[in-house]
Write a structure and sequence with these properties.
Helix content is 57%, strand content 7%. The chain has 153 residues and is mainly α. The chain has a two-stranded antiparallel sheet with strand order 1-2. Strand 1 and strand 2 form a beta hairpin. Helix 1 crosses helix 3.
Length: 153
Amino acid sequence: MTEFVASNKCFTAIKHYEPLRCFAYKDYSGTLRVGYYHAKNVKSSDVINDEIANNYLKEDIQECESRINRLTLNPNQNQFDALVVFIFYFGISSMIESDLLKLIRENIHSIAIYDEFLKTNNVNEGFHEKMNRLKRCRTIAELYFTGKLDFTA
C-alpha cells in the first residue's frame, strides 16, 4: 500500500479558512490554539511568528497523514488530501464515528460520501461557526471528488 503525503492543496485549504494567529487564543470550545488552529501543548502565554506557525501546521498535517495512511483506504491524491483536511478540522474520531469511514471502505467513489462530509456538525457552535464549518465541508467534498479547491461553495 502506498504511503501518501499531503499536497500543497491541504496547506492552501487550511490557510484559506484559518487566519494566522500569533497569540494564543481559545476557540469556540475553549481549546487553546495558536498559529493555524494548532492545539498541541499550547499555553495561554504563547506568542509565535509565521515560521513557527508554518512548522506547527506541517506537524499537524503530518499527524493527519499518518492517521489516514494507517486506515489503508487506498485513496487517490485528491481523496487523500480531502481526508487530511477533514481530520485536521474534525479529528479522526469524527470520521470513525460517522458513516464516512464505512462509506469510503464500501466504495471510495460513492457520491454518498459528499453528503456525509456535509453532515459534520457540532451543536455547540454558534451560527457563524456553523456556516464556516459548512463552507469548509463543501470545500473538502469538492476536493475529494474533483481535486479542485472551490472556496465559493
